[in-house]
Request: fold
Amino acid sequence: MNLNGTEDLRVQKTITAIYQAFEELILTTDYEKITVAELARRARINKRTFYRYYPTTGLVAKYGRRTMRTASTPTLA
Reply:
């Protein structure tokens, strides 16, 4: 999911929580063993909420850094 800064604050917080949970897990768990259930638990969201944004954990890894970089870049009005 690409954030452009215009999303609802709840969406931004949820996506951020997913990426932070993924980053924590990747430090202690083999990539192949990271599950949606564990990601959701660590992010303090429901599994259905996770699937609203990503169909697999692989896409979190693929787009995570780019999305977080884009979301944290301030936009000039």
About this structure: Helices lie at 9-28, 36-43, 47-53, 57-72. Confidence is low (pLDDT under 50) at residues 69-77. The longest helix spans residues 9-28.
